[in-house]
Amino acid sequence: MSASVTLSGSRVCLRRWREEDREAFAAMNADARVMEFFRSCLSRTESDVMVDHIEGHFSKHGFGLWALEVPGVAPFIGFTGLSLPGFSAHFTPCVEVGWRLAFEHWGRGYATEAARLALGHAFETLALTEVVSFTSVKNHRSRAVMERLGMRRDPADDFDYPSFPEGHPHRRHVLYRLGPGSRFGAG
Ligand SMILES: CC(C)(COP(=O)(O)OP(=O)(O)OC[C@H]1O[C@@H](n2cnc3c(N)ncnc32)[C@H](O)[C@@H]1OP(=O)(O)O)[C@@H](O)C(=O)NCCC(=O)NCCS
User: Fold this and answer.
1) Per-residue confidence band for 2, with pLDDT thresholds at 50, 70 and 90
2) How confident is the model over 131-143, as pLDDT tens digits?
3) 56: part of which helix (H) or strand (E)?
4) Ligand 1: residues whose CB is within 6 Å?
5) SS3 63
6) What is the rounded CA–CA span in Å between residue 73 and residue 125?
7) Strand 172-178 and strand 152-153: pairing?
8) Which ranges in 75-139 belong to alpha helices (H)?
9) Residue 70 Cα, ligand 1 centroid: separation in angstroms?
């Protein structure tokens, strides 16, 4: 498996990260609207550490959170892709599909289109038998992406995200699951 795989759709391109993406990514990670459901915004250093971690994941596994480009619109609007969560829960080990877009690129369907490409790669190329996604119970925009993809939530799978402290309003998370026979590629 090549670690440099690029996935292209009708509007979006999932590609490996470039040095110049780091500045735009740090700006996103400093935006309270983008980071509403995380513990806090990230400093430039924390944002760069995350990019290093993403690159390390690509090197180790051959897939990861791809940088998201919209040709003709913007060279970098965030990320969408596949990753192995670094914590233990009742559904791990697993592969997660995830996304984070700059606020000005919300509401255009880019996250869903990109996630469909990532899921195609997960099921058709990597031959995975399941992909999950999870987010804070209150993150309705992210849950809507999961639902558009045909992912299914069982309330019995809800869990407390370990890195949020007890009592934190976003600690409770929902888990969505998808298998290879689903219609994520439709639409
Ligand atoms: C989660 C997140 C990626 C969702 O972004 P989004 O823009 O709502 O999702 P999509 O890109 O799939 O866009 C869907 C919207 O685009 C609209 N849209 C406009 N043009 C469209 C087109 N050509 N095709 C498809 N949808 C289109 C859809 O109708 C939908 O609108 P709605 O939200 O009013 O229903 C974004 O809110 C985000 O980055 N949040 C911060 C990070 C985060 O919380 N990540 C998840 C943590 S687990």
Assistant:
1) low
2) 999 999 999 999 9
3) helix 44-61
4) 34, 37, 98-101, 106-112, 135, 139, 141-142, 145
5) coil
6) 28
7) antiparallel
8) 110-120
9) 14
Amino acid 182: pLDDT: 80
* Residue for token pair 């944002």: 47
Distance CA 121, CA 9 (A): 12
Q: What is the DSSP string of 114-161?
A: HHHHHHHIIIIIS--S-EEEEEETT-HHHHHHHHHTT-EE-GGG-EE-
Hey, which of 40, 73, 142 would you mutate to test ligand 1's pocket, going by the most ligand atoms within 8 Å of its Cβ?
142
Residues 6+ apart with CB under 8 A from 139: 36, 37, 170
Residue 186 has pLDDT above 80, yes or no: no
CB contact at 8 A, 96 and 85? yes
Cis check for the bond before 71: say yes or no (omega within 30 of 0): no
R_g of the chain computed on alpha carbons = 16
Residue 39: which of 186, 165, 183, 185 has the closest Cα? 165
